[in-house]
Design goal:
The chain is α/β, with parallel strands linked by helices. It has a single domain, classed as Rossmann fold. It contains 6 helices and 13 strands. The termini are close together.
Length: about 210
């Protein structure tokens, strides 16, 4: 893998689970820092937005640190690659409906709503290993000759306006977008950093694009 000049900013906005992402980068030999520092973010080649918790708390964390405008500039204007993981994937949507109605980053148009799993007899949150069905031929899903298996922890899911951005679908009572790709913006509802070889392949794909 070519990563001589790669560096990853793992965005720290106060909502946890950075350590496992940082360790995954270390394993891949990619220089990475967990940071909210604007200079570090602008000088990095790739951005990862991890996170666990509620949509509004995530947006508030970004707002408090002055990161909303900065990330929009880097991602929408400079076209820097970004990967949202779990809550991070949800925050790239236009709006979220967890504990109210809140504006998201809007990197991919769409909304974040609650999984309808309970009406199918499934428990929430959705926790555990599920296979993901590959949709189309996407860069983020390269290198798989099987439907990969990933680790999930969530109760809400991202519904993109344009279904063609969906790169992977998971079935948990209902089909939902597990992976999205739109130009330089990527989102994984699962935790690739906790999903063994299949998860590492996703991270490699992101860094190779």
């Amino acid at each position: 893998m070519k990563h001589d000049s790669h560096s990853v900013a793992i965005i720290d906005y106060g909502v946890g689970n950075h350590r496992s992402v940082f360790n995954a980068m270390k394993l891949l030999g990619i220089p990475a820092s967990v940071t909210a520092d604007p200079d570090t973010i602008t000088s990095s080649t790739h951005l990862i937005l991890p996170g666990v918790g509620a949509f509004n708390e995530g947006m508030e964390g970004l707002r408090e640190r002055g990161l909303i405008e900065l990330l929009s500039e880097e991602v929408l204007n400079k076209k820097k690659d970004i990967l949202g993981i779990c809550l991070g994937m949800q925050l790239i949507a236009s709006e979220g409906f967890e504990y109210g109605h809140f504006e998201g980053l809007g990197f991919i148009k769409g909304k974040v709503i609650k999984l309808d799993a309970e009406s199918f007899g499934y428990r929430l949150p959705h926790i555990g290993w599920n296979d993901v069905h590959i949709v189309g031929e996407r860069n983020i899903m390269k290198g798989f000759d099987h439907d990969p298996i990933f680790y999930f922890v969530h109760s809400y899911h991202f519904v993109p306006e344009d279904e063609t951005v969906i790169a992977g679908i998971c079935d948990y009572g209902q089909d939902f977008a597990a992976l999205v790709e739109s130009e330089n913006v990527f989102g994984a509802q699962f935790h690739p950093e906790k999903s063994h070889n299949d998860g590492m392949q996703i991270l490699k794909n992101f860094l190779n694009i």
